[in-house]
Amino acid sequence: MKLVLLSALLLITKVTLHAADFNAIVLEQIRKMPEGGGYATTREAHQALNSAVALSPLGLRVESSKAQPSYCSGATYLLFLKTLAEAEKQGLCPPATSSSESLLPKAMPDGVGIWGRWNANGPGTARLFHELGLGKNFTSWEQARPGDFMKIFWSSDVGKKERGHSVVFLGVKTKDGVEHVRFWSSNKPGGYGEKSVPKSKVAAAIFSRLENPSNIQRVATMPKKDAYLASLLTHESSLGEALQKTGAMAP
Question: Is 74 helix (H, G, I), strand (E, B) or coil?
Fold first, then answer.
């Protein structure tokens, strides 16, 4: 009888974890992030990011207010870490999900480690999600939900010549008859906060939805370096290759 009850409990727990709305947690963490603080991509900005994240006996400690000035990939990475920690706190992830030293945003080349993947040119976040099975990647605006991580490409260039932005999607609104995309990130020039731009300015976008945060533990078996992302500092790719490397499907 006890074995049957235990099996039922484990099944319920598994279903609950699978059905958890992690987008809601992402949005909750945005509300707890600082406002402003300035935008910069200097060494000092990265040092500030690094000082904002530390491991403690209770797990990952993120003090976002220390990461000022900030930049886009650093802002979304802090939000990702805060979401992992909150999901663990709520019992939606196994203990120690957010306790790996590999999560610290230490200085490392593009494509190396978790932070090096997230911070890389191209589809860094989406590539990490695909590699570890953290959630699905897609390009459909109709499927997108507030709380999805999003890589905006301002042109069709991917890699060496790209212009992009790492953000969290907040929705689409119509302003003066023109569709605008709303998102949160660290934006020029003010830093942390919400921004909107005409949707027509977005050449392409890859959405990444967090669904299985506990899979971050797969980092133990993940190759140290992602050759594709590492190459994008000096080489050009394409949107088609980016979609193929992330498992994303074009609409």
Answer: helix
